[in-house]
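User: Can you predict the 3D structure for this chain?
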Amino acid sequence: MLLKFAIKTARQAGQLLNSLQPSFRQSRIKSTELDLVTKADGLSEKLIVSSITRKFPGHKILAEEQYCKSKSSGYCVDPSDFTWVIDPLDGTTNYSHQFPFYCVSIALVKGDKTLLGVVYNPNLDEMFYASIGHGAYLNGKRLNVSRVRALGQGMLCTGFPYIIRQHPGDNFRNFQRFCLTAQAIRRAGSAALDLCYLAAGRFDGFWERELKPWDTAAGALIVRQAGGITTDFKGNEYNLFRDKEILAGNKHIHQQMLKVITRC
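Assistant: Here is the predicted structure, written as structure tokens:
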């Protein structure tokens, strides 16, 4: 019931985003000159939050726009609570430029354990989803990470944080190192979709810094349920609320990436 609800709600939000896009190119700045938010972010979040509140009034909600407006210093997730972690529009800059790589991400966590995750790309009508212990799927088809064994044959993906102009060296060093060791690197602009593409075997490895829980909550679970590994840059198990960095891949690529990545 919970997973079906999340899938239905993500689809509704994604369809809303697509219907609004032609009239919502205008954006405002959130925290830095590169961190955009559109009115569509807020409308999508309102749809998702209102659906959760009606269906599960006792559940807590951690939603990107609500959190950013509150300027909270912590995520306030109680281990005994069911908490929905929501990104109503991951890839806002893409969306505002009508670049068709954005999604809705919804996850349900209890404490630091993610129970289910859903990521919906409305442009391709691709619904990625997983629940703990039951595998990962794309539109009903079981997902598995790639079997690529050598980093030199792998296609990786990454992203650059919105604070790049304040800290320009944040990811360039790793980008350069992986350019010299991997077959290819892509930077598409949605961490949630990047992780799902990794789970589907379209990418072989992923790394990024300065991420928030709503960026990775659903995607990281989908990777793990597809047989992948998610850690921090030191190889420790990835913690959604503690870690701002994530390194993911199949077991071969992940171990090789650990040897390349810098941990500054």
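The radius of gyration is 17 Å. Confidence is low (pLDDT under 50) at residues 31-35.
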